[in-house]
Amino acid sequence: MLRPLGYRSGHNYRTVARLAAGASLKAANARPEALGRRRVRATLLVIMGAVALVLLIACANVANLILARASGRSRELAVLAALGASRRHIVGQMLAESLVLSFLAGALGLVLARVGTDALVRVGARYVPLPCLGEVRTDCPVLLFTTLVSVLTAFGFGLFQR
């Protein structure tokens, strides 16, 4: 990005150019800014992919907890069935337990995401001077997505235990 003489920043690269006759500083800055935005977008997509993989691993861990708990409960379920509990009651109980565990895991994930995002924005503001860094936050779409993933995990592994 071309800057007037005397401008100082923490960027690692400097561009030196001579403006063509009749060209403005704004027009000369347009292309480097577009390239910078493209690079930031690519970086953020890679980070988003990494976060999605971490979320997938977390869901697998919660599912593993649910399935491990269910495998040790075969006697309890057999006793409930012998005492006259309907299949609907047993499935409802297992689903309720899975929902509680999934929502607790989702809530913990949201708290960690909020704390981690705030920390990364504070640290990133010092080392990566991005103009839109202040807009990074944990907002309503993140909450809805986390809730959806928690519910799907609970239903998926709460109903299909065995």
Task: Report what the structure shows.
The chain has 162 residues and is mainly α. The chain has a domain at 57-159. The protein contains 4 helices and no strands. It has helices spanning 25-71, 74-82, 87-127, 140-159. The longest helix is centred in the first third of the chain and has 47 residues, at 25-71. 9% of the residues are buried. The mean pLDDT is 78.
- Strand pairing plus helix content: what structural class? mainly alpha
Beta strand %: under 5%
- Which stretches of 5+ consecutive residues score pLDDT under 50? none
Radius of gyration from the CA trace?
A: 26 Å
- Mean pLDDT score, rounded? 78
Order of helices and strands: HHHH
Give the proportion of residues in helices.
Answer: over 70%
- Anisotropy-based shape: rod-shaped
> Can you summarize the main beta sheet?
none
Query: How many runs of DSSP E, i.e. beta strands?
Result: 0
Number of helices: 4
- The CA-CA distance between the termini, in Å, is 60 Å
Features:
162 residues, mainly alpha
Q: What would a concise description of this structure say?
A:
With 162 residues, the protein is mainly α. It has four helices and no strands. The longest helix has 47 residues.
List strands and helices in order, with pairings.
Elements: H1 25-71, H2 74-82, H3 87-127, H4 140-159
Helix pairs in contact: 1-4, 3-4
